[in-house]
Amino acid sequence: MIKARSLRFSRVIPMVAVLTIVAGTLGACSKGTTSSSGSGSQPIYNVYVQKFRFHGLPSSLPSGNFTVNFTNRESFPINHEMVMIGIPSGKTTTDVMNAAKAKGPSSEDQWLHFGEIPDVFTGATKSQVFDLQPGSYAIACWQTGKANGGTNGPPHVAIGMIFPFTVK
Hints:
By secondary structure, the protein is α+β, with helices and mostly antiparallel strands. It has helices at about 1-30, 95-105, and strands at about 45-50, 55, 60, 65-70, 80-85, 115-120, 125-130, 135-140, 160-165. It is globular.
């Protein structure tokens, strides 16, 4: 009986060692699949908002998939979002701002959406993958709120929180 236990135990140890090696190898492989802005991989853009302005997104991007890490760097508590919209031919970001001034937050529904990163509070970062074809786009924020507090006020896009870019 003692001999049988030893035999079973001696078979388990090598199997555990093999599984540990395989799991370690798979874990190492999965670490290498992280997207970066290097050759042959999906670009990553670190975009932030500060003083109700977007920063960090280039004015021209290649078509296809890319990741945006969106950070709210305001110096006061406030909620922002980053909504990706298409700018139709004959329209500009000024048209988007004027619509927001006239209609408030509901003006957001006038524009074709290509995704968004919602509810990013001061100090937070959220990420999202986008896939865009060639065209004219903008990122904008329809959240309301003021630097001195409160949620009342115009949509942030109405006070200039919009950034246009093209995809080629």
